[in-house]
Amino acid sequence: MSSETDKSKSWNRKDDPARFSVENFDRPVLGTPNNADRIFLHSCCAPCAAEIMDALAASKIETTIFFYNPNIHPRDEYELRKQENIRYAEKLGMGFIDGDYNVRDWFDRTKGQEWEPERGARCTTCFDMRFEVTADEAAKRGFNLISSTLGISRWKNMEQINGSGVRAANRHDGMEYWTFNWRKQGGSQRMIEISKAEEFYQQEYCGCVYSLRDTNAWREENDRPKVKRLVKYYGRDAIVEDNDEREAATSEQG
Ligand code: SF4
């Protein structure tokens, strides 16, 4: 057998998606950055949260989910995303805290940023608001470690999220924001696998009214049907992957 064949075999083994599937992946035991044995985890939705919840459960890190997302518009969209997350938290036996839906405060805080693109200044404001409340609530409950499920999405800028998370944690002595990269080691792949197995609701826009407007504008320009809210579920419907295409289009435009 030639050495070239050997090399290609070992490359295949390393990168074979099957190795990272929920079925085959040997989950490592994760250690927290400050040795905390429990975490207060901000969650944006069930599809993003589930893989992280599974990873934390496998590492025996006691996890409390904090659903605080007053950015999500409109209310029925918010309620559905929340209920899906409650369903999975109950399945894993994790604590779930339902944050305020203080929409007015979110609109006040993002005033003047209505036309910012996704991953721009409005998103920093949005992350800051959600993580500040997460950190304050965590401190009240005696947690010294927080993180968020937002970073697992490839559509999000992880540096932007981590920056907001670290700033929020710094509001409290001894608190840390865990900047773990949940996408690595097949995390993004398992996120989809779990979502299909659980038939989670699949949202087609980030959350706020401006992201709904901009997603629809992009779809119209690209001859795509408008966003259908409250009807698409992983495992039952074709997966919507507009985000990757939009990302490529945006990069091309510089
Ligand atoms: S696009 Fe998403 S992250 Fe940005 S402001 Fe809207 S809801 Fe928040």
Query: Segments where pLDDT lies below 50 for 5+ residues?
Result: 1-11
What is the mean pLDDT? 91
List how many beta strands DSSP finds: 5
- How many distinct helices? 9
Q: Any ligands, ions or cofactors bound here, and which?
A: iron/sulfur cluster
Biggest sheet: strand arrangement: 3-2-1-4-5
Order of helices and strands: HEHEHEHHEHEHHH
Radius of gyration: 19 Å
CATH topology: Rossmann fold
Instruction: State the distance separating the first and last CA atoms.
Output: 47 Å
Describe the structure.
- With 254 residues, this protein is an alpha/beta fold.
- The chain has a single domain (36-252), classed as 3-Layer(aba) Sandwich (Rossmann fold).
- It is 47% helix and 9% strand.
- The chain has helices at residues 3-15, 46-58, 75-92, 103-109, 121-140, 158-169, 187-198, 209-221, 242-252; strands at 38-43, 62-67, 95-98, 145-148, 176-177.
- A 5-stranded parallel beta sheet has the order 3-2-1-4-5, with helices on both faces.
- Helix 6 links the parallel strand 4 (145-148) and strand 5 (176-177).
- Helix 2 packs parallel to helix 3 (75-92) and helix 2 packs across helix 7.
- The model is unreliable at 1-11 (pLDDT under 50).
Summarize the structure.
With 254 residues, the protein is an alpha/beta fold. The protein has nine helices and five strands; from the N terminus they run αβαβαβααβαβααα.
Summarize the helices and strands and which ones pair or pack.
Layout: H1 3-15, E1 38-43, H2 46-58, E2 62-67, H3 75-92, E3 95-98, H4 103-109, H5 121-140, E4 145-148, H6 158-169, E5 176-177, H7 187-198, H8 209-221, H9 242-252
Parallel strand pairs: 1-2, 1-4, 2-3, 4-5
Helix pairs in contact: 2-3, 2-7, 5-6
Bound molecules: iron/sulfur cluster.
